[in-house]
């Protein structure tokens, strides 16, 4: 199962001790990303060029595994996170083909009036 995970860093002014702790959490997060990448669970990872944050594509076996991975990331308290399930375009194409078949088999009200 593929999931797009978008993290936006919460920008808050904090004291030096908190800022150092947050930097350590981010370093731990990057180390965790590398472990997940080595395990084949992260397919893609990108940082945003225009703002603090980034996105990863996770390949996990279940929703439970997704939750486990996300909750164990050290950056959890530092980011606002959005998660979107992904599907391949082939899946969407087959649905469109099915819908076209259904629509073409429906009676056409314009043709009724022409008889």
From TrEMBL:
InterPro entries: Dimeric_a/b-barrel (IPR011008), MLI_dom (IPR026029). Gene3D superfamilies: Dimeric alpha+beta barrel (3.30.70.1060). Transmembrane segments: none annotated. It comes from the Archaea. Residues 1-88 form the Muconolactone isomerase domain. This is Muconolactone Delta-isomerase family protein. The lineage of its organism: Archaea, Nitrososphaerota, Nitrososphaeria, Nitrososphaerales, Nitrososphaeraceae.
């Amino acid at each position: 199962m593929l999931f797009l995970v978008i993290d936006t860093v919460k920008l808050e002014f904090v004291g030096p001790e908190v800022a150092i702790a947050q930097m350590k959490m981010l370093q731990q997060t990057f180390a965790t990303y590398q472990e997940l990448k080595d395990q084949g669970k992260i397919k893609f990872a990108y940082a945003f060029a225009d703002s603090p944050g980034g996105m990863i594509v996770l390949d996990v076996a279940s929703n439970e595994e997704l939750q486990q991975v996300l909750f164990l990331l050290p950056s959890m308290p530092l980011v606002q996170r959005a998660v979107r399930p992904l599907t391949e375009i082939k899946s969407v194409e087959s649905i469109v083909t099915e819908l076209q078949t259904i629509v073409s088999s429906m009676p056409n009200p314009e043709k009724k009036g022409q008889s």
